[in-house]
Amino acid sequence: MKEDKKDTAAEILQAARQLFYEKGYENASTREISARVGISKAALYHHFRNKEEILFRICLQAADELVDNMRRAIARNVESGKPLKEQLTDILIEYLRTYMKNENFNKILFHDMEYLPEDKKRVILGKEKENVHQLRAYLASLMGDGAIRSVNPTVLTFSLISSLHWLYFWYKPGGPLTLEDVAEHIADLFLHGLLPREGKR
């Protein structure tokens, strides 16, 4: 047993995240989680009150990471002076790297968050809204500067985020496309659309 290890709580979250990914929240037990970490159930309950709290902490941890990484990506690009496509590609790459790094969290989010009580769901959804708001503000500032044409910023923001979230269902790491390739394609589509460029009709 290793009940005195300082990072036991982090190990519990990691083991639970993987177990929820494999079996689903409802079918995973605290006994299985503690066995994977190599601690007793009593030691697990020393760190977390119940399985619900573990699920909430997993969701909150991943949501916080995405918000923080996106905030930094937007901040470093706003005053960078880089071409707009490079800015948007860099921001999208940061989003995708964080999103795909937490691939098992994405499955948990889509399938298991329903088991959280409403007050905890609101916290996680609040983090998602925070992410939407900071991306929307960035896109709106580009419109205000005349860098992109004026469209409904909410529609644009959700269209962009939706295209990123669907990667969970089709993107395979190690396939023909890297995350950088995907981000560049999405940025190009949003900035230039599908019509042929001049001289290529």
TrEMBL record:
PROSITE patterns: HTH_TETR_1, HTH_TETR_2. Gene3D superfamilies: Homeodomain-like (1.10.10.60), Tetracycline Repressor, domain 2 (1.10.357.10). Signal peptide: none annotated. Residues 29-48 bind DNA. The keyword Transcription applies. Keywords: DNA-binding, Repressor, Transcription, Transcription regulation. Residues 6-66 form the HTH tetR-type domain. The keyword Nucleus does not apply. One of its GO terms (molecular function) is DNA-binding transcription factor activity. This is Transcriptional regulator, TetR family.
